[in-house]
Amino acid sequence: MDDIVARQIINFLQFITIGVIIALIFDFFRAYRSRKKVKNLTVVIQDIVYFVIVTIIVVVSIVNLLDSNLRLYIFIAIIIGIMLYISLLSKFILKIYDLFFKILFGIIEIFVIPIRLILQIISKIYHFFEKYIKKCCKRIFNMISFIYKKVKKVKVPKIKLKTKQKKVS
Q1: pLDDT, position 123
Q2: Pick from 53, 1, 2: nearest CA to 23
Q3: How many structural domains comprise the chain?
Q4: Which residues have CB under 8 Å from 75's CB, separation 6+?
Q5: Tell me: the pLDDT tens digits for 17-48?
Q6: Is the separation of the CB atoms in 90 and 34 below 8 Å?
Q7: Which of 106, 81, 102, 70 shows the shortest CA–CA distance to 26?
């Protein structure tokens, strides 16, 4: 009997930990959204991803830790874990996530700036030569059109081929 109660207490504590993990993942998405402005469609996609991740965590935990035995106290433990995390750790973890995203976006920006610069240079070169290319192409098109019209007007005489006639003797 004591072994069963001890096992249930351990399971209860494990699922409190899972509740903390679920809230940690939620704060990750929340910190990302606060750092980077996202569109409504992106929020919906992120919510679906979050839901899938949480579902996988809960189902795998129930299968592995409880041998697929579903108990009400497990869901209570998850809710307690979420509430403990939000009341005790959320503000601190959000600051850590915010710093993480600040550093990550800074590193990404270091790689993006040269690419943007190269694309701007290519764009400027293209726009500089664009009018000359259009003029050149227009002149070539006009010459071809002119030649085509002249050739079309010229009547080519039909050439008759002489055939050899056989002499009849």
Answers
A1: 80
A2: 53
A3: 1
A4: none
A5: 999 999 999 999 988 888 878 888 888 999 99
A6: no
A7: 81
